[in-house]
Amino acid sequence: MKPNLKASFAGAVAAIALIGSAANAAEWRGWNIHVEGYPNTVAMDKFAELVEEKTGGEISLQMFHGGTLGSQPDAIEQVRLGGLEIGNFNLGPIGPIAAEANVVSLPFIFKDVPHMFRVLNGEGGEMIAKGMEAKGLIPLAWYDAGARSFYNGAKPINAPEDVAGMKVRVMNNDLYSGMIAELGGNPSPMAFAEVYQALKTGVVDGAENNWPSYESTGHFEVAGYYSLSQHLIIPECVCINADAYNALSDEQKAAVKEAAMESAELQQQLWAEREATSRKMVEEAGVVTNEIADKGPFQEAMVPVYEAYLEANADLRPLVELIQATE
Ligand code: GTR
């Protein structure tokens, strides 16, 4: 039988078109540590939706929430190496990888959240982003994570003496271990997912976090004293694997960046609401909150933490000074 040349030609064209569209279509996977309904979860879902919409379906992003793809330090490595493309990361566990990003983990470096955003949206943010990019992570937009304060199950904390002798969970970062040690406590670096059990069984006496995480994790059920030390104000990023980003066309880059910025706007709005509702919720559940009248002694105790950071990163003194000089 004579082969139908016309039909096989059409078939080949169709096959080539299919291969072509497959080569241009990217399917990304994204990591997020938080539960459903958390501001970051909602905003990352929005990001995924916007990426797809703004790239006309050329890029799709499947989000994995609740830390199901691993702990945060592991996920950061995954995104750096390209095993995952996207992550909503706290800059805390990025600090040990990119020294520039570690500047935000110096206790009390930011006066408040608006101060943090002024720094991030200026030259300081550019320096931090550059440092991260050199390590394979590009921050597309910044999320709000409020201020972190201490909590424990035994007593209100008003002075460094109250932390002395306490075992306190911290995120994986030597700056935080130094911070607790300078207050006289015993730092216990641990993954987020393990903290509830550790508090419950007395493996640690306390931890530190913002209102929404204190509430969403149930930590307030097992550590009912929340003391407003507000010692850390750490931003979060929508971060992308640098190679994945650099492989995009200019139009795609712009679309992805825009999607991240819009998701950040939503996150910041939801964050402000959630901070208030989380606080109300835990206080109604019986949590005892205290303001700290004088944070001076906590700040003074941090001098060696700053000295150690600057000794290890002399070239970053201008960044620290830039932040301190930012109004
Ligand atoms: C939360 C933050 C998480 C994670 C967590 C922790 O506030 O959003 O990314 O860093 O704290 O304490 O591990």
UniProtKB/TrEMBL annotation:
Q: Could you confirm whether the keyword Signal appears in this record?
A: yes
Its annotated compartments are: Periplasm
What Gene3D superfamilies is this protein classified in?
A: Bacterial extracellular solute-binding protein, family 7
GO cellular component terms given for this protein: outer membrane-bounded periplasmic space
Q: Where does the record locate the signal sequence feature?
A: 1-25
Q: Which InterPro entries match?
A: DctP_fam, TRAP_DctP, TRAP_DctP_sf
Q: Which key words tag this protein in UniProt?
A: Periplasm, Signal
Under Gene Ontology molecular function, one entry of this record is: carbohydrate binding
- Return one Gene Ontology term, BP aspect: transmembrane transport
Where is this chain primarily localised?
periplasm
What the entry lists under PANTHER family is as follows: DICARBOXYLATE-BINDING PERIPLASMIC PROTEIN, PTHR33376
| Protein name, UniProt field | DctP family TRAP transporter solute-binding subunit
Tell me the organism: Oceanomicrobium pacificus
